[in-house]
Design a protein that fits this description.
The chain is 48% helix and 0% strand. It is an all-alpha fold and 137 residues long.
C-alpha cells in the first residue's frame, strides 16, 4: 500500500529529521498527498523523490527526545498545580487568592520575559535547545 509507505515517511520526517530540516515534513506530507491523488503505479516516482529528499536531509531526533521527556515529567507531576500567575482569574475570589497576579504577557515586551511556566519541581528544566534551529524555522 503506497499510502502506508507515505505515512511512514511522514513519521520519519518528524521523528528522525525533525528541526534539522523543517522542510522534510513539508516534503513528506506533499508526497503523501500526491500519492493519494495519483495512486499506483504513477505515485512510485513521487515516493522515490520523497525518500531521496529524506535520505539526504540532516538528521536530528532532539525534538522526539524532548517530547518523550515532557511526557515523563507530565506523568510524574500530574498532581502539581499550574503556577498561580498563569491561572485565569475570571472571579473576584480567584483574584483574591492570587490567580493571574504577576503574569507577564510576552507580546507586551520587546524582549523575552523572565517568568516560570512550570511547576516548582520542574523549575529550570529545559527540554529542547533550539538555538541551532533558529535560522531554519
Amino acid at each position: 500500500d503506497p499510502l502506508y509507505i507515505a505515512r511512514r515517511l511522514i513519521r520519519f520526517a518528524s521523528e528522525d529529521i525533525g528541526l534539522a530540516d523543517p522542510q522534510a515534513l513539508v516534503q513528506a506530507t506533499a508526497g503523501f498527498q500526491a500519492a493519494h491523488n495519483i495512486g499506483m503505479p504513477e505515485c512510485n516516482v513521487i515516493l522515490a523523490q520523497t525518500v531521496v529528499y529524506l535520505a539526504n536531509a540532516p538528521k536530528s531526533n532532539s525534538l522526539y527526545k524532548a517530547y518523550q521527556a515532557v511526557q515523563q515529567d507530565v506523568k510524574a507531576t500530574i498532581n502539581e498545580g499550574v503556577p498561580l500567575h498563569l491561572r485565569n482569574a475570571p472571579t473576584d475570589l480567584m483574584k483574591e487568592v492570587g490567580y493571574g497576579q504577576g503574569y507577564k504577557y510576552n507580546p507586551d515586551y520587546d524582549e523575552p520575559v523572565e517568568q516560570d511556566y512550570l511547576p516548582p519541581s520542574l523549575k529550570g528544566r529545559k527540554y529542547l535547545d533550539n538555538k541551532n534551529y533558529q535560522s531554519k524555522i
